[in-house]
Amino acid sequence: MEKTRVVIAEDETVTRELLARLIGTEPDIEVVGQAPNGKVAVGLCRKLMPDVLLTDIRMPEMNGIEATQLLKKEMPSVQVVILTIHHDDANVFEAIKAGARGYVLKESPPEQTVAAIRAVARGEALLHPGIASRVIAEFNRLSEQQEADLRLYAQLTDREREVLKLLAQGKRNREIAEALFIAEKTVKNHVSNILWKLECNDRTQAALFASRVKL
Fold first, then answer.
1. How far is CA 23 from CA 30, 111, 213, in A?
2. Which pTM value belongs to this model?
3. Which of 15, 29, 33, 68 has the fewest CB atoms within 10 Å around its CB?
4. Where are the alpha helices (DSSP H) in 11-59?
């Protein structure tokens, strides 16, 4: 039977070694490497090409989310399970956006961690039941936000979109006027129209809007 090869990244030595022992008793899983931080974990993955990286989020030098981002760029075939004590939504969403396919709390029974490893190795995803509903709700909210943004963006004229793109780059009215070969007063009028149409209070909010619609 071909085993699922796992690298474990955890800065607490006792926790890391305990995980390795528990996971290593499974007949279909082999722990091929251990790392005290994300930097070492990525190095081990480059060398060993495991099937799964099981990683904590908060670690010195390079955290689990940063390691996941780097790993998914260099070695997309290596699947990632995030293991953490943190229940906060921000870490969940950042980990998933980085490319993690599993998210397990340290307080969970070992069988849940093993189940997550097996699931991601099969190309599936597995989230702790306590956070799955919040993740779905957040992605639904983001989808609704995107639809609302696109409806507002559709109201802009082509020239206003050009002005918004330059505004989002941090350019002032004079610089925008020079770039588009129009009068600075005309730029001011365009900016006022943009803020009104996008329901933004100031240029900063308009720039954030532009980043959301990926201008």
1. 8, 9, 43
2. 0.66
3. 15
4. 13-24, 38-48
